[in-house]
Amino acid sequence: MKTALMVWGASSGAGKSLLATALCRWAAREGLGVAPFKAQNMSNNARVVPLAAHGSDAEVGEIGSAQYFQALAARAAPQVDMNPVLLKPERDTASQVVVQGRVDAALSRMPWRERSARLARAARESFDRMAARHEVLVIEGAGSPAEINLAPQDYVNLGTARWAREIATLQALLVVDIDRGGAFAHLHGTWALLPDDLRTSLAGFVLNKFRGDAALLAPGPDRLQALTGVPVLGVLPMNRDHGLPEEDGLYGAASGPAGGLRVAIVAWPQLSNLDEFQPLAAVASVRWVRSAGDLDGADWIVLPGSKQVSGDLAWLKARGLDAAIVRHARAGRPVLGICGGLQALGALLDDPDGVDGEAHGPLPGLGLLPLATRYAAPKRLRAAPVQFAPLAHPWQALSSRRWPAYEIRCGRTQSIAGAASAATLALHDAEGLPIGWSAAADPGQPDRHNVLGIATHGLFEDAAVLRALFGQQVGTLDATFDGLADFIDTHLGAATLRALFHC
């Protein structure tokens, strides 16, 4: 590694991931051998990638979605060293710890301060391998580098920066969300709290998500530089339609074209991999729902992935959403369950060992598919193309369609033998294992299999699937990455970017 460019944030949600992705594609277009790195990510948005740079596809692990997309932007093969530590929240006070792609149950049970040294060692190992393989690393920090309460254990922002300085030229950018207000105070305060040995690596500030007349910022940037000695390198306008999945998986109000198909996605508390629905908003009117009333007028209901299915089912039932979903299904309208959503659509969930959360015996699901799920370790990780079986209305557009998919799950789901209404096989994996089923919610409409559940993620990330379902073209990921590179080239400038990358 010759050069490391680090992206710090004045806070979470400042735009680190988007800027790092844009920098990866810009550097790749310049012909640099670039790759992303983030020592630790906290997210339930994950992708399945090889364990090693040139490893077998059979040896796979998990990384945060942000580093997966950054790798694609950099035109580098995604692999686990790009995000060696991934924390997947299971509840407010506990997270599953994934180290170099694999779940570490012992570390998951350990308090953060006690486990941080072990995680730092694993992160350093991965960093050193990445530095040996690539000319340039674009390094994303986490949260803020000014968390002085965490500084002694901070290997993500401070530690990684010091590792980079040992072997290469390091320059850092500090990005702030100016739309939240207090941007100059955030930048000055973060600069003031940076350790002395790293403050000199700060090459510039970036003001992100600006709306309005940039002239109104004056004299703020000049005053800030006078106070810190650090220039404002650029102002990035608000860019809501950048097309990149949100790293933190934020959801909000309805989005997508007015007058299109109305898709309601259940926003349960332990939501996982919700970023896979971002492409759907380009072709349908998508809204995230948390109450039964929010389902009014929905054409489709989608139950997404869940990090803790039994807990999310209890939340669903407490809000009366279960009955509303069942009414919707029995009226013949489409219901789709993905991964944890598939499990919730079934009749029974059994977790005797507490793999998915608190241990429990058989609990009732929504009963819309005659399926039973039993949770057991180890987690199933797989990334491979799958193919739908012939499907009935309203999913017939997916019949026999092949698409890239990935699995991240613990539950093993099977049809219930002798159930009053049988489930129809809808999807199987490369080995022929059933991983998707459909059924009629209303026995009076046996030819209308309006309830569909699949164990795989990534359905709406395939442009051909969206075209088949909605008859509309969608942009490619490559076009999104190029758009982001063009965006920073315009607002930061090619000369500034070349100076940052020393090219």
Automatic annotation (TrEMBL):
Protein name according to UniProt: Cobyric acid synthase
GO BP term (any one): cobalamin biosynthetic process
Lineage: Bacteria, Pseudomonadati, Pseudomonadota, Betaproteobacteria, Burkholderiales
A molecular function (GO) term: ABC-type vitamin B12 transporter activity
Function: Catalyzes amidations at positions B, D, E, and G on adenosylcobyrinic A,C-diamide. NH(2) groups are provided by glutamine, and one molecule of ATP is hydrogenolyzed for each amidation.
Pfam families the record matches: CbiA, GATase_3
Family of this protein: Belongs to the CobB/CobQ family. CobQ subfamily.
Residues the record marks as active site: 339 (nucleophile), 457
Pathway(s) this gene product operates in, as recorded in its UniProt entry: Cofactor biosynthesis; adenosylcobalamin biosynthesis
Domain of life: Bacteria
Encoding gene (name): cobQ
PROSITE patterns listed in its UniProt record: GATASE_COBBQ
Keywords: Cobalamin biosynthesis, Glutamine amidotransferase, Ligase, Plasmid
Segments forming domain CobQ/CobB/MinD/ParA nucleotide binding: 6-240
Domain CobB/CobQ-like glutamine amidotransferase intervals: 262-463
Matches recorded under InterPro entries: Class_I_gatase-like, CobQ/CobB/MinD/ParA_Nub-bd_dom, CobQ_GATase1, CobQ_synth, GATase_3, P-loop_NTPase
